[in-house]
Amino acid sequence: MSLLLSNDDSVHAQGLNALYLALKKRNKVIVVAPDRNHSGASHALSLEDPLRMQVLKNGFVAVSGTPTDCVHLALNVICKEKPQMVVSGINHGANMGDDVLYSGTVAAAMEGRFLGLPAMAISLAGKEHFASAAFYAQLLVEKLLHHALDADQVLNVNVPDLPLDKIKGIKVTRLGKRHQAEMCAESKDPRGRKIFWVGPPGKIADAGEGTDFHAINQGYVSITPLKIDLTATEQLAPLADWLATSN
């Protein structure tokens, strides 16, 4: 089986290497990832700057762009044969709830799905037990390759930061929700000019049973199917009625 791996933590990230080591045992794997950290890049494409790539000593390809750039370049230029699936991760930290809107890890998987391949994003809710996440990545890759999902979906997988024997199993979940992000922090640069740091994510607002937050907190792997089509289909008719309503 042929797989394309990418991430947003950079081509040098521990999580990406753990994913590669786990998946290369049974698959043909190519790694194309950003040359530096692009966490929070979402689905950004580099439209004003050219992309440069470098093949590292370990065979990984480092790209001077975003996670989406990496997958786009890989599938259109680098891969001589089209892979069967795109796997993004293992992210250093969870991607749950509203976080998926900002996640470069999720965006890399989305780009793979846009370009016609099954795709999965996998994140570790911490920074220690990457082997646990890698185990579940291998399990789910084989499942996806033998039993494909609908063409408009990607899987968003989060793994608790626990030893493998402490993880209770897998739960299919919906996205939880966070409160509004905290305010930007104002500061000054060495020349006395104002600068601003984006504040941390908001606190969890919905971690009820059935959410990704709840599953991770209970020691389960969370799997959330994400739709590519963002259309609020159920609102098409009500919106048309609303427009037709006279003032």
Short description:
This protein has 247 residues and is of the alpha/beta class.
Structural overview:
The chain is an alpha/beta fold and 247 residues long. The protein has a single domain, classed as 3-Layer(aba) Sandwich (Stationary-phase Survival Protein Sure Homolog, Chain: A), CATH 3.40.1210.10. Helix content is 26%, strand content 27%. The chain has helices spanning 14-23, 67-78, 104-114, 130-146, 212-217, 236-244, and strands at 2-6, 28-34, 53-55, 61-63, 85-92, 119-125, 153-160, 169-172, 177-178, 185-188, 194-197, 204-206, 220-227. The protein has a 9-stranded mixed sheet, sandwiched between helices. α1 (14-23) crosses α4 (130-146) and α2 packs parallel to α3 (104-114). The longest helix is centred in the middle third of the chain and has 17 residues, at 130-146. The protein is globular and about 65 Å long. The mean pLDDT is 92.
Q: How would you characterize the largest beta sheet?
A: 9 strands, mixed
Number of domains: 1
CATH level 3 topology = Stationary-phase Survival Protein Sure Homolog, Chain: A
What order do the strands of the largest sheet run in, or round the barrel if closed?
3-4-2-1-5-6-7-13-8
Distance between the termini: 60 Å
- Give me the number of helical elements: 6
- Which outline best applies? globular
What's the pLDDT, averaged over the residues? 92
